[in-house]
Design a protein that fits this description.
- About 0% of the residues lie in helices and about 60% in strands.
- By secondary structure, the protein is mostly beta strands.
- It has a single domain (about 1-110), classed as ApaG domain (Immunoglobulin-like, Sandwich).
- The strands form two sheets. Strands 3, 4, 5, 7 and 8 form a five-stranded antiparallel beta sheet that branches. The protein has a three-stranded antiparallel beta sheet with strand order 1-2-6, with no helix packed on it.
- Strand 7 and strand 8 (about 100-110) form a beta hairpin.
């Protein structure tokens, strides 16, 4: 997981801070798994929480065979110069059994800022 501040799309005067993040999803199991849905919990520096739910990621629902990986970059906008994201991806297996993959919390912050 990588995240970074996108200064060119941000406007601190207007409390508009844009962050990009890159996620790499890898199938370490024995059978294919297909990503169905995402659920993100985004928290800004003032504790305001926004939840984002929807199908797939960046318009895709990748099917990963054992050993395959899928990487994508997306973004979010905060009203504060720092915050965090965490969430889950819902997957299905060949037998239609569904499971959630947890995404650990990661920071979104301007360079050279402290908590």
């Amino acid at each position: 997981m990588q995240s970074g501040y996108v200064a060119a799309q941000s406007s601190p005067r207007d409390h508009h801070y844009v962050f990009a993040y890159t996620v790499r999803i890898s199938n370490v199991g024995n059978a294919y798994a297909q990503l169905l849905n995402r659920h993100w919990v985004i928290t800004d520096g003032e504790g305001h929480v926004e939840e984002v739910r929807g199908p797939g990621v960046v318009g895709q629902t990748p099917r990963l065979n054992p050993g395959d990986s899928f990487e994508y970059t997306s973004g979010c906008v905060l009203r504060t110069p720092r915050g965090s994201m965490a969430g889950t991806y819902e997957f299905t297996r060949i037998d239609n059994d569904r499971f959630d993959a947890q995404i650990a919390s990661f920071d979104l912050r301007l360079p050279l800022t402290l908590n």
